[in-house]
Amino acid sequence: MSIDNDPFIHSEIAGRDLDQARAMYEESYNGAGFTTELTDTDFAYRYTITGDNEMTLRSSMFLGSVQGAIQPENEYVVSWITGGAGVYDVGGDELPLQIGKPAMFPTGKQFAFEFTDYRQNLVHFNAGYLERIAAEEEGTLPGGLTFDHTAIPDDEALRQWRNTIARVAKTVLTGETTTLARAEVNREAAASLLRTFKHAGPPLPEALLAPRNARLRHAVEFMHSHAHLPITPTEIADDAGLSLRGLQVAFSRHLDVTPTDYLRGIRYERARDDLRNLGPRDTTVAAIAARWGFAHPGRFATGYARRFGESPSVTLQR
Amino acid sequence: MSGTSPDPGSESDWVDTTWAEFFGPLDPALLFECTATIHGRQNAVFVYPHEIVVEGPEIAEHRRSIPLAEVARWWLVDEPGAVVVTFRNGHDSAARVPRVFRPALETALGKVLGPPRYPEDAFSGASEAESVSRSARVDR
């Protein structure tokens, strides 16, 4: 059985070698070019993972100095240090971490960090999972969430977050639970995170709020959550319980667009998010276009400029 | 490096204590450790100054200690979400751990055993997973 299909994992890696540690952390957080140094402390590192494909509770200990830049992919991460010192640097804005104060990893963008002799707890959420919970809890469309990493949660929200995480950690870390119970605590943690940390998701067209348009809304939600896959109008219609003709009529009547054009619009928005969050040293316009299913970079650039009023290369440079 | 987990005194300890502490203290004699428990089945590689201890569900009695000098070759095979590390010293002993640990595993084992050396039959005529299963069967 592969680990991907396994619902629960409890794992650990630890050692006393800087090269091992650097390799481990670069891989874990999609980083590169880390620099590490010894401090007065005997060097050791330790990284633990407990949880499943929806959420994992992790801990990290690094008794040395490490700095670099990372860009986590396909996940949302909240963390807090329990010892030592750390700072995030997002585009020149330094965010010193305080012991016990949770902070979201900046979403969708590369950011720099520097940590010394630190211990840290982290909660990693699978991106698709957290986006689905956000849609269910908040009535929004499933899709990429953008967290404001500079926003400071109020004291009451943080108190509730701590209480929730204490319950969740007790359940998950002991491993003495059922799949169903773990699904419940995963959801509880996800909902608490969404209540605690300011964020924004995809906007919901007003026409989709009417109960009579429930199937249309279902189709739109399906498109948002599957935009990264090669889905067809027939599959979208089937999933929404509509005929292909019914799907086309509903989109035309309420959203004034064809299903194919609507899906293309979602993909343009996702491409724009990527271009904003990455820099010219990280990617190219052609790579982003290909990632979102645009086979011809020239046509992508033309459509992008028509939609957003600037060329994709300008967005990437900003 | 694993041991008995501490018993937190209060609810807030579950937030303020580094979760690694619930895994137990680090063994000072160990150079490297990589473990994964999946559905209660333990997989692990422990590297000591003079030996490697491998644990896995396919190993006889689930655990084998191999002096470093007796490891004829070792290699890594990727699976979806996992990497399988196999040591050969007459027997093949394999452990399966999360893929994210691969670079550290390769670095750690490379320093004590030299670079990985794949056996001739590692991938021939079989998928990677089948190859690993075949290696593991040698052990039974």
Automatic annotation (TrEMBL), chain A:
<keyword id="KW-0804">Transcription</keyword>
<protein>
    <recommendedName>
        <fullName>HTH araC/xylS-type domain-containing protein</fullName>
    </recommendedName>
</protein>
<dbReference type="InterPro" id="IPR050204">
    <property type="entry name" value="AraC_XylS_family_regulators"/>
</dbReference>
<feature type="domain" description="HTH araC/xylS-type">
    <location>
        <begin position="217"/>
        <end position="318"/>
    </location>
</feature>
<keyword id="KW-0238">DNA-binding</keyword>
<dbReference type="InterPro" id="IPR035418">
    <property type="entry name" value="AraC-bd_2"/>
</dbReference>
<dbReference type="InterPro" id="IPR018060">
    <property type="entry name" value="HTH_AraC"/>
</dbReference>
<dbReference type="Pfam" id="PF12833">
    <property type="entry name" value="HTH_18"/>
</dbReference>
<dbReference type="InterPro" id="IPR009057">
    <property type="entry name" value="Homeodomain-like_sf"/>
</dbReference>
<keyword id="KW-0805">Transcription regulation</keyword>
<dbReference type="Pfam" id="PF14525">
    <property type="entry name" value="AraC_binding_2"/>
</dbReference>
Automatic annotation (TrEMBL), chain B:
<feature type="region of interest" description="Disordered">
    <location>
        <begin position="116"/>
        <end position="140"/>
    </location>
</feature>
<protein>
    <submittedName>
        <fullName>Uncharacterized protein</fullName>
    </submittedName>
</protein>
<feature type="compositionally biased region" description="Low complexity">
    <location>
        <begin position="126"/>
        <end position="140"/>
    </location>
</feature>
